[in-house]
Amino acid sequence: IIRMSGGGRHSTAASTSEKFSVIVHAFRDSRFRNFIILCILSISAIMWLNFSSILYLRDVLKFSDNQIMFFMTAGAIGVALSIHTTGKFAEKFRSNHVIAFLLGGFAIIATGWCGLRPEMQWTLKFTLPLIVLGAIISAEFFIFASKGMMSLVQEKDRTGYTSMWIVGTSLSNGIPPIIAGWLISIFHTQGYRICFVISAVSAFTVALFWKRFHLDTVELITDAHMIVKPTQPLRSLQRLAWMVRRLKRDNNHKNQ
Fold first, then answer.
1. How far apart are CA 135 and CA 123, in angstroms?
2. Which of 232, 184, 228, 243 is nearest to 53 (CA)?
3. For 102-137, what is each residue's pLDDT tens digit?
4. Model's pTM, two decimal places?
């Protein structure tokens, strides 16, 4: 509209130096930089397990697609039902302590995956609890990390801070699966367990650093259980289940 005749002032594109100056300023913020580094290491630890565990279920433990879909759905339901408790839990403890606790628990879960073997009788009993707990911890970590990021962003250069967050999370989400796939293709079954060990060791190590990192001076997730409605994601899960049943029914009709 402003480019039309009589539309008012003309827009001016920001120069390249102006675009990078806000990023440089955010990078100079040592507290935020250390926070991003911890987040990169934490998300990487989570991705080592999240990526390799799904392939492990299919290729080593030989679970069917329907069983894997059931496991993932149970994990999503666990996340939806745990938000209320997470919000109240966060009101009593500081965010960095909660993150350290979550990553410590994730390290235990990653270690537990090493004990899931096709020949063991307890594999079927412990697979579902490990998946559900891992999904809950992963989701809760992202909640606390995102809230912590917003509390550290300065209003003046929020574009630079947000850019650092996006780049950091993208790298931590993309690099571990590539390396994990390479390890699995070389070492096969042992490659999965290497990924589990890397996830456990890195999660536990980063948890120690989180405990010393003072993320906030006041509780960050106050009344989070009032902001997030635990039952809201269930409608999406119901829709997803309906789509899966319909797809399966259509496939059965085609086979007949």
1. 18
2. 184
3. 999 999 999 999 999 988 888 888 999 999 999 999
4. 0.76
Q: What is the largest CA-CA distance in the chain?
A: 77
The C-alpha atoms of residue 150 and residue 165 are separated, in whole angstroms, by: 10
191 contacts 101 by C-beta, under 8 angstroms: no
Strand, coil or helix: 256: coil
Return d(Cα 82, Cα 10) in angstroms, integer: 50
State the Rg of the chain over Cα: 22
Q: Give the Cβ contact number of residue 9 at 10 Å.
A: 6
Picking from 121, 120, 141, 119, the residue whose alpha carbon sits closest to that of residue 49 is 141
Do 220 and 95 touch, CB atoms closer than 8 A? Answer: yes
Inter-helix orientation angle 30-59/65-92, to 10°: 150
The three-class DSSP label of residue 90 is helix
Q: Which residues contact 4 (CB under 8 A, 6 or more apart)?
A: none
